[in-house]
Amino acid sequence: MTLKLHNTLTGTKDVFEPLQPGHVGMYTCGPTVWNFAHVGNLRAFLFYDLLRRQLLASGYQITHVMNVTDIDDRILDQAMHAGTTILEYVKPFVAAFFEDMRALRTQPVEHYPRATEHIPEMIAMITTLIKRGNAYVADGDVYFRIDSFPRYGALSHLDRSGLRAGARVAADKYDKESVSDFALWKKAQPGDEEVGAAWDAPFGRGRPGWHIECSAMSKRYLGETFDIHSGGVDLMFPHHENEIAQSEAANGKPFARVWLHSEFLSDATGEKMSKSAGGFTTLRDLVGAGHDPVAVRFFLIANAHYRQRLRLSTEALHSAAEQVRRVREFAERVQRARPAEGEDGELIRRVGEVRAAYRQALDDDLNLPQGVGHVFELIREANAALDEDRVGVNGRQALLDLIEEVDGHLDVMGGGEPGLAEEVERLIAEREDARKARDFARADRIREELRQRGIALEDSREGVRWRRVTPG
Ligand SMILES: [Zn+2]
């Protein structure tokens, strides 16, 4: 298996090879905890999770870092409004972020560094940048000097001549040398002290800008050069360009080797979802409207390739829920199936073929939608084989192994209704006993009770089968 990833830096799908054989260092831009995450952010976070799972499936060990931005202008404003400190203000949103991640079944990453806990690392990096002439102090603020970094714009293939021409006009409004220079450090304002958002630094008391935190924290946990950096496509410019400029200028070494960017989620009207624009949809909103977080997960990772736009709609979420239901039902059916005598060679061959196609799709820049498409084809064929009692011991095992492998990415099995299968099995056994004792009224009551809970029973040659239906 050879994993290929689309690297924004090169603009091509390249064979992935980590710096250190067998180990991957990865940094992913995390949430700014000024509010609940909107579903557009969640798409990026689930993309990181898919990438992480594919790296693990490819046999790599991984050190995955995801920052939590607990200081920025919006947090400051909100804390001032609420008359509290920034640390108190963000508490419920930090908790909500981790709750969302659990509900969406993302794997925990190795480090979740918080910006306010890494101020000394940021100050050290800014000090180096000033010393090297890449940054300057202007009236207590510190700016990065873009002209000192000729490679600026390489990631987003930016035309720097346009950047500079525009700069001349508006530069007088700022203390900056050029309007495109960006802040590394912001001088403390009186209100900042009250909300606990000011720190001492050799270049004056203040607080860090947003971009410097990712440069400082990735260095702390992954070193100066590391394998993968990813984020939403909206972060490519200026955030990621600024990270590259800061890190490479300060360290004198290349920064991240591979950059991956996930596309926008758009709302029903086709507009990009953005919490700054207001009226955003959170996971809480969706769960409140009756959507299962596991269906939301499936929708966000499996219904479009990560570099394609995806449109959020109620119909799309319902169809994702239906797909999850089909996968789960199929898995339950295979688990319960009593193997037939002999084997169906054709089915076993097809399972092998689909496994290869699935792996190839995932290795091809994480094409999960294509991989899942192959699996759904197989589910149709295997259901027919089960109907005709053609699945033997080895066929059954091959199907179970494939389901397990696919669920390593999807993670939609189990959970949700803990113990449901055992409970249903117990009631089915009770109903069988009642029938044997010719207590048909009791047997019917059990069937009815299950139907009200959304479980339909079917008597078949393999014994009693059950499946989920609309309750009632
Ligand atoms: Zn970042």
What does this structure look like?
The protein is of the alpha/beta class. The chain has three domains: 4-262, Rossmann fold, CATH 3.40.50; 284-410, Isoleucyl-tRNA Synthetase, Domain 1; 420-468, no CATH class. Helices cover 49% and strands 14% of the residues. The chain is built from 16 helices and 14 strands. The chain has helices at residues 39-57, 73-82, 86-103, 119-131, 160-170, 190-194, 210-222, 236-251, 283-288, 293-302, 314-336, 345-363, 368-387, 393-410, 420-436, 440-452, and strands at 4-7, 12-15, 23-28, 61-66, 135-138, 141-144, 182-187, 206-208, 226-232, 256-262, 265-266, 310-311, 455-460, 463-468. A four-stranded parallel beta sheet has the order 4-3-9-10, sandwiched between helices. A hairpin with a 2-residue loop joins strand 13 (455-460) and strand 14. Helix 4 packs across helix 7 (210-222), helix 4 packs across helix 8 (236-251) and helix 15 runs antiparallel to helix 16 (440-452). The radius of gyration is 27 Å and the shape is elongated. The model is unreliable at 165-173 (pLDDT under 50). Bound molecules: zinc ion.
